[in-house]
């Protein structure tokens, strides 16, 4: 049984089990390939309106160019992660009946998918907040918020679509920031060379060279680290919530104890086998070359 770090005897809320927040494309009706729209860009080779299936989607909901997405200009597809919303909506909320079998349900199914993805992403972060804090009250609050979100997702379609997601988001954000401050403070105490580097929430750090830096405890929430050279840097205790890591170079970086890093952020970056990752994340397939 998984337990609360602040209270080892407390059972982990099922909603905060990250295993259920991993995509299971085999049990999804390709909702990410239909619900969202995208524009022709460096990430997508064509325009696609929201609610319409991608032209590369096969009748069995698989992708006909799955093995060559990047060379074919669909890098965005390799970055996306639904946090397990696809199978939750396809199998849980819609009982395994696809939008092809029931076209009348399409709009609600896609709306539910967008809402559940947001909620599951919050659960992903809350699971980490609960694990990283040493404050039992904060850990309890993270658990309660997780349970609330879990009930909302499992409470049926009408309840889900009526949910005030923004209000929940504000509560989650407050808890995440509280844990961030606690974690970062512990690393500030140990020192770090980020204080003079102009780093901070939302900082414009596009293309900067931070190679080999000790960025322990830095607050990089929402920072623009696009194409930054972050190789061999230490991100222990660094808050990376929503940081834009597109094309950031992470080869040899130590991200194992970073805070709020997600799989889509890693998928958008480049790295190497020497990059140290948090336990719940995996090395993107395109990383093996650096
Ligand atoms: S290219 Fe493939 S993975 Fe990307 S949206 Fe189209 S069908 Fe889905």
Task: Describe the 3D structure.
The protein is mostly helical. The protein has two domains: 169 residues, no CATH class; 99 residues, 3 Solenoid (Pectate Lyase C-like). Helices cover 33% and strands 0% of the residues. The chain has seven helices and no strands. Helix 2 crosses helix 3, helix 3 packs antiparallel against helix 4 and helix 3 runs parallel beside helix 6. The longest helix is centred in the middle third of the chain and has 27 residues. The site of iron/sulfur cluster has 8 residues, from loops.
Amino- and carboxy-terminal Cα gap: 38 Å
The percentage helix is 25-40%
Largest sheet: none
Bound molecules: iron/sulfur cluster
Strand-pairing-aware structural class: mainly alpha
Order of H and E elements: HHHHHHH
Gyration radius from CA atoms, angstroms: 20 Å
Distinct helical segment count: 7
Uncertain segments are 1-9
Proportion of strand residues: under 5%
Per DSSP E runs of 2 or more residues, the count of β-strands stands at: 0
């Amino acid at each position: 049984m998984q337990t609360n770090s602040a209270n080892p005897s407390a059972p982990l809320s099922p909603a905060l089990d990250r295993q259920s927040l991993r995509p299971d494309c085999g049990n999804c009706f390709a909702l990410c390939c239909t619900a969202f729209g995208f524009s022709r860009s460096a990430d997508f080779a064509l325009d696609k309106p929201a609610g319409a299936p991608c032209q590369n989607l096969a009748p069995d909901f698989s992708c006909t160019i799955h093995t060559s997405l990047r060379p074919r200009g669909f890098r965005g597809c390799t970055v996306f992660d639904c946090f397990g919303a696809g199978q939750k909506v396809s199998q849980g909320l819609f009982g395994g009946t696809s939008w092809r079998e029931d076209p009348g349900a399409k709009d609600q199914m896609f709306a539910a998918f967008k809402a559940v993805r947001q909620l599951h992403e919050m659960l992903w972060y809350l699971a980490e907040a609960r694990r990283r804090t040493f404050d039992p009250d904060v850990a309890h609050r993270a658990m309660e918020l997780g349970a609330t979100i879990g009930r909302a997702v499992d409470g049926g379609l009408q309840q889900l679509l009526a949910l005030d997601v923004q209000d929940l988001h504000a509560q989650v954000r407050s808890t995440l920031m509280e844990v961030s401050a606690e974690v970062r403070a512990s690393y500030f105490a140990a020192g770090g060379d980020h204080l003079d580097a102009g780093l901070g929430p939302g900082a414009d750090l596009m293309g900067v060279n931070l190679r080999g830096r000790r960025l322990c405890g830095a607050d990089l929430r929402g920072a623009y680290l696009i194409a930054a050279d972050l190789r061999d840097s230490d991100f222990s205790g660094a808050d990376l919530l929503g940081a834009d890591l597109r094309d950031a170079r992470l080869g040899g970086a130590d991200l194992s104890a970073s805070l709020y890093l997600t799989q889509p952020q890693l998928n958008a970056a480049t790295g190497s086998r020497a990059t140290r990752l948090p336990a719940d994340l995996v090395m993107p397939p395109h990383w093996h070359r650096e």
